[in-house]
Amino acid sequence: MEKYVINGGNALRGEVEISGAKNAAVAIIPAALMVDGICRIENMPQISDTDMLLTILSHLGAEVKLINKNTIEIDSRNVRFCDAPFDLMRKIRASYYLIGAMLGRFGVAKTTMPGGCNFGVRPIDQHIKGFNALGADIEVKNGFIFAEAPEGRLHGSRIYLDKVSVGATMNIILAATLASGRTIIENAAREPHIVDLANFLNSMGADIRGAGTDTIKVNGVERLHGGSYSIIPDQIEAGTYMVAAAATAGEVLVKNVIPKHLECISAKLRETGTIVQEYEDSVLVKGSGNLRKANVKTLPYPGFPTDMQPQMGTLLAMANGTSVVTEGIYDNRFKYVNELRKMGADVQVDGRIAIFEGNAKLTGAPVMACDLRAGAAMVIAGLCASGTTQIEDIHFIERGYENFVGKLRALGADIAIVDFPDEPEIHEKAVSVG
Ligand code: UD1
Fold first, then answer.
1. 292-346 pLDDT, tens digit each
2. Ligand 1 atom nearest to 121, measured from its CA
3. How far is the CA of 321 from the centre of ligand 1 (A)?
4. Which atom of ligand 1 is nearest to the CA of 97?
5. 302 preceded by a cis bond (ω within 30 of 0)
6. For 8, how many CA atoms within 13 A lie in the half-sphere containing its CB?
7. Which range of residues forms the domain containing residue 388?
8. How far apart are CA 36 and CA 413, in angstroms?
9. Cα–Cα distance, 220 to 225 (Å, whole number)
10. In angstroms, what is the span from residue 425 Cα to ligand 1's centroid?
11. Cβ 109 vs Cβ 98: under 8 Å
12. Is 60 exceeded by the pLDDT of residue 425?
C-alpha cells in the first residue's frame, strides 16, 4: 500500500506551476464525444480522474492520442452507442457528464449512478429534471441510469434549477448543445469551469451564451466540428498551494493561474495576515508566521469554494484565536476533522458548523485521506507538523492533483511516496471497528 510520508517543519519556498482544471477537464472529455471531428485539448491535467474518463471514451470507440504530457487529441467520429464500462464509471463523480453527452450525440444513454467523494447524500435530481425538460425519459434502477429521447433528439426548453448545481448546469449544457431549439437554464451555477465548458463547446461550433451568469442560453446546433482548446488553470489546486504556503510560513509564487478565480481564497488568506500579491497570471503568497483567526462560509462561486474548506480549516486550526467554519454546500464535509484531531487540533463539529479553537501545535501521526480535498488538507497538516506524518488512501488525492509530491518537493517539502507491505486483513478489521 502506497502512503505519503511527510517530515514536517519546512516552509515552502519557490515557484509552482498550476495544471489544468480538473473540474473543467472532466466535463470537456465527455463533451468531446459529441464532436464530429478531431479535438485537440491542451493543459489537460494528468490525474487519475481524467485517465479514467479517457479510458471510458476509448472503450466507447473514440481514438485518444497523447500528443505530449498535457496535450491530447480525441477523435470521436467512429464512436457508436454501446454500454460504457460500468466498473470505471461508478468510481468517479464526473461520469454523470456522459449522460448529457451521450443523450446529445445518440439520443440515448446508459450509465451507472456516479461515484466520487462521499460528502453525504449527493442526489442528481436536478440533472434528471433538466433531461426530462429536454424531452428525455429517464429510468433509475438498481444503480443504473437509462435515458432516452423518444424522438431521437432532445428539444430546447426552459429549466429553473431548484438548487445551484455545478453538475446539473454542465450536464444540461451538454445535453442542450445538439438539441433542437433554444434552452434557457435559470439559477445556473457560475463556476469558472462552467464558463470553460461553454468556451470549449463554442470553439467547436456550439452557440452557448451567458455562462458565468445565472442565466445560460443554449441555441442548439446540428453538429460540432473539430478544433483546438486549452483548459483553464485549476482554481482549487492553486488555492491548495496558496494555503500550504501560508500555513508553513513560506513564500511561493503560484504560476499559470487566473487571479480573478482566486479572489475568494486570496481575500480569506489576507484576513489571516498572509500577504497575497496578484500579478497577471500568478499570485505571490507570503506567510506571516503569525496566522490570525477567520470565519469561513462555503458558497457557490464567487463565494468561498467548498473544495477549499478542508485545507483552510487545517490552517485555521493553527491560527491564533477561534474560527468558525460553516459548510454551505454539503451535509458531511468535516470528516477530515477526526484525522486533524489525531495530530493535535482542537475542533468541535455540529452538523454543518465547525469551531476551530486554534493555536494547535500539530504533531505527526498516521492519518487517512478521507477524500480528495480532505487528503490535501492532511498533506498541509503534515507539512506544518513536527515529526513524521503518514497518509493512507492517497489514491483519493491523486484523483485531482497532478504530480503533487514532485511539486511539493520542488518547493522544499520533505514528502515521499513510500510503498508499505499490506497489513494483514485481521488487523485492518480491528482498526475499522475501533
Ligand atoms: C461539483 C464538483 C465538486 C464541488 C461541487 C461544488 C465536479 C466533478 N465536482 O460537484 O468538486 O465540490 O461541484 O462546488 O465538478 N444537488 C442536489 N441535486 C442535484 C445536484 C446537486 O440536491 O441534482 C446538491 C448537492 O447535494 C450539493 C449541492 O447541490 O449539496 C451542490 O452540488 P453540485 O454543485 O451539483 O456539485 P457536483 O456537481 O456534484
1. 999 999 999 999 999 999 999 999 999 999 999 999 999 999 999 999 999 999 9
2. 26
3. 32
4. 8
5. yes
6. 24
7. 2-19+233-428
8. 45
9. 14
10. 35
11. yes
12. no
